[in-house]
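in:
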């Protein structure tokens, strides 16, 4: 019998998909993101509709609400997984605020603001509540790596102590990079694994992919297990002409125009005849002209002074924006901010920002995983997700631990 798991903060289903690919069985999900849960329901038809719970995890009685709707008892859950919202622990936000304070451009905050005051950073306590009630054999929690450096590791120590007090003495954590497990993206995240009885010696899954020692030439065969590159990930997707303002979601379904050229593309297609969610944004003509002058891998600092002036932002507040993806390396981290701004992810060869499907490929979602909702919501769902191939590696690790 397969191990059954509940996915907390589960929309749109990246963690669940990876666990399912590893051999576990999803039985329920909780989130308060309606369109993300619609996506979850579409892609996990084996999970009963009433077990996909739209509720605020910070509610005092959230466990009772969840159990009342799903009818799940402690004996029905073997594993609890979750990635609580973690914006306050982001090192990007902390570094930016510190720079603005030092330059006198921001006041009212200390140079080392206490992000623990952000209630989203305490949502892991909801996960602890579920663990105390359902008593699963194993816990998996994912979060940003900035948590490790927050207040000299205070947050990590607190989380581990809370899990131990909940009855899970065997606990460890590791920072894992999605690129090491076949995702075409440098994405480093901290994973906690805790068990009640099974000993934990090493929770790090053995890497399956490694940094490419010969990045000067695009590979057409992934058998060497080099990192999967951006163009290996998205190079076979249909060409998008100048994006139109009125592009409709239903028009984002297209036929593939070429055959797959590498193992990743073959895997991603899953024998599909069409590709869904292949929609991007409209751009100003001036922006597209500037895109055309950028080489793959270029960023804001590489733009000419003339072009930076034309765009109109200052270097201090905009240095991390306007990035053109490289061709022969993995992407930098896909983020939920794609919902509002795609200029950190300019296509390496086409003069536009990436589409929802291209972002999903970089997150290692196969093409048969379809995202629901509007375009902005789809970008948000992709950016918030755990890369399925990374979650699959973690799933195989917990199976190994629980079967030992």
């Amino acid at each position: 019998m397969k191990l059954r798991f509940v996915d907390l903060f589960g929309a749109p289903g990246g963690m669940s998909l990876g666990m399912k690919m590893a051999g576990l069985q999803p039985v329920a999900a909780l989130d308060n993101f309606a369109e993300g849960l619609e996506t979850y329901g579409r892609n996990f038809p084996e999970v009963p509709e009433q077990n996909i719970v739209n509720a605020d995890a910070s509610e005092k009685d959230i466990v009772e609400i969840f159990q009342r709707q799903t009818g799940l008892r402690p004996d029905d859950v073997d594993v609890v997984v979750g990635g609580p919202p973690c914006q306050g622990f982001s090192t990007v936000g902390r570094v930016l605020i510190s720079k603005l304070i030092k330059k006198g451009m921001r006041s009212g905050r200390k140079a080392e603001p206490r992000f623990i005051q952000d209630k989203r950073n305490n949502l892991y306590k909801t996960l602890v509540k579920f663990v105390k009630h359902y008593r699963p054999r194993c816990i998996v929690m994912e979060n940003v790596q900035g948590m490790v450096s927050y207040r000299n590791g205070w947050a990590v120590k607190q989380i581990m102590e809370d899990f131990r007090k909940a009855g899970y003495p065997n606990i460890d954590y590791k920072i894992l990079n999605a690129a090491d497990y076949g995702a075409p993206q440098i994405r480093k995240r901290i994973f906690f694994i805790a068990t009640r009885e099974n000993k934990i010696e090493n929770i790090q899954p053995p890497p399956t992919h490694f940094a490419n020692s010969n990045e000067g030439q695009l590979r057409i065969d992934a058998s060497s297990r080099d990192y999967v590159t951006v163009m290996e990930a998205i190079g076979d997707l249909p060409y998008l002409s100048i994006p139109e303002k009125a592009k409709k979601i239903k028009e984002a379904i297209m036929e593939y125009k070429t055959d797959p050229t590498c193992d990743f593309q073959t895997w991603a297609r899953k024998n599909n005849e069409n590709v869904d969610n292949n929609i991007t944004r409209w751009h100003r003509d001036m922006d597209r002209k500037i895109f055309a002058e950028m080489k793959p891998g270029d960023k804001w600092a590489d733009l000419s002074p003339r072009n930076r002036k034309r765009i109109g932002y200052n270097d201090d507040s905009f240095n991390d924006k306007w990035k053109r993806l490289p061709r022969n390396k993995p992407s930098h981290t896909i983020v939920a901010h794609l919902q509002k701004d795609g200029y950190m992810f300019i296509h390496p060869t086409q003069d536009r920002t990436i589409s929802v499907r291209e972002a999903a490929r970089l997150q290692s979602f196969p093409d048969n995983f379809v995202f629901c909702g509007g375009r902005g919501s789809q970008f948000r769902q992709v950016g918030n997700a755990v890369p399925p191939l990374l979650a699959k590696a973690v799933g195989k690790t917990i199976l190994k631990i629980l079967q030992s």
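note: Residues 91-102, 105-116, 215-222 have pLDDT under 50 and may be disordered.
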